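$ ./design --mode recover --in tokens.txt
reading tokens...
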């Protein structure tokens, strides 16, 4: 079967994430039916999150039809109510629901760009929450740009979020410049993932940074 993309709401893990990031998820599709999604980079998802997966439909000898994902990302819901809930529970955890609803009413689906750009109305609505929300939504934007590549090497959503929150707009530069340093700085980022990035982007596999990261990973 050819490449396809599906959207759904996470129900539960059928198979919990293994060390290398492989897992099997049960999701509810837009038509109300259930589907199994399997693949690497599925760690760190939670029940109720809206996700979009890219991959292909396959047939497992025992479990039947399932979606083999090459990458998966958390996406914002399409309804206003869902969008406000996503803002307060997923994108900016703890953000008061009334503030999230006000933002969605003012900016609709483009709320993230307005907050990140420092829109005066967004600053007024958010008040003391502005800096926290701006940082979190910037991480969401980085996820859209870099998440698929990291997912392909087995880095789950939870670890990707830590990367984007830590590095912000410099995430891409830090990832390609010295992936081994991330083993020290990002909880849950594995030496194996750093190695896969290094092989793709060019740092020497016998570099001192690699040897130090390997030693830390072995401890």
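writing sequence...
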């Amino acid at each position: 079967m050819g490449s396809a993309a599906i959207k759904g709401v996470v129900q539960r893990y059928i198979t919990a994430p293994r060390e290398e990031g492989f897992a099997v998820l049960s999701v509810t599709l837009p038509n109300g039916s259930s589907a199994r999604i399997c693949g690497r980079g599925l760690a760190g998802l939670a029940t109720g999150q809206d996700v979009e997966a890219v991959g292909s439909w396959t047939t497992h000898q025992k479990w039947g039809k399932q979606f083999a994902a090459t990458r998966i990302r958390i996406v914002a819901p399409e309804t206003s109510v869902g969008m406000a809930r996503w803002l307060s529970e997923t994108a900016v955890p703890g953000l008061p629901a009334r503030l999230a609803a006000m933002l969605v009413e003012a900016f609709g689906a483009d709320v993230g760009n307005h907050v990140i750009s420092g829109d005066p109305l967004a600053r007024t609505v958010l008040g003391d929450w502005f800096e926290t929300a701006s940082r979190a939504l910037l991480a969401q934007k980085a996820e859209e740009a870099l998440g698929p590549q990291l997912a392909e090497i087995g880095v789950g959503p939870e670890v990707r979020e830590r990367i984007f929150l830590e590095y912000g707009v410099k995430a891409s530069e830090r990832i390609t410049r010295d992936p081994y340093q991330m083993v020290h700085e990002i909880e849950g980022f594995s030496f194996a993932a750093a190695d896969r990035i290094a092989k793709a982007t060019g740092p020497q596999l016998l570099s001192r940074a690699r040897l130090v990261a390997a030693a830390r990973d072995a401890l």
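exit 0
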